[in-house]
# Entry
Amino acid sequence: MTFYRADLHIHTALSPCAGEEMTPPRIVAAAIMAGLQLIAVTDHNSAGNIAAVQEAARGTGLIVLAGLEVQTREDVHLVCLFNSAAEALEWQSIVYQRLPAEENREEYFGCQLLLDAAGREIGREKRLLLTSVDMGLEEVVREVSGRGGVCIPAHVDRPSYGLLGHLGLIPEGLPFAAMELGLLYPDEALKQFPTLAGWPLTVASDAHYLKDIGRRVTIFDFVEEINLKSLHQSLRRQQFKVVVGQRDNFR
# Structure
């Protein structure tokens, strides 16, 4: 068995609400400094910087999973993880088709920087990413699952963009891999939201700035090679624990 300290919700400078410091080499360095072995790049509605972060991490031992944080029609954020950057980009093409035809206003929302592995700007995403796609929660989950990906509702306990904080319920029958907590400890979340009982409860930093990377960590216990399938199995088998600050909660 091998333990991996993971932060599966990290933004790059492609997300307009993230700092321009969130470049591939700086993210990799910050993750290693935080003692992480596994991260996921999850920009808002886009996969444009995943390959650059993976290239920046090559040879360091840090594993970088491919993901997007999709904002559904209901204004719920979903972390969507895929087996490769190519698969994430395929999903991005669908997401882009369902985004409103609006351009980003940099003076209001911030820049959406496309970067190479060295952190150099190679372009700017012009379409507005910080908005909802024209897809409901169920459609997003079904589409991602059908493409071999997994969905984890992000920061479900937050009042804004969280599944429970925003909708107040967990829709039945949807194959979520886990529920990500953004504010509470797992025991506190179960008291406040009893419907979380029975779900794997993970944490992640939702880092928009370097200082936040690794602030909330899920430690996975893998018995196989690390990939999306083994991650999903670890969640189903409750082979993980979460760490928030100095306090541990064992699952």
The chain has a mean pLDDT of 94. The longest strand covers residues 2-10. The radius of gyration is 17 Å. Residues 2-250 form a domain with the TIM Barrel fold (CATH 3.20.20.140).
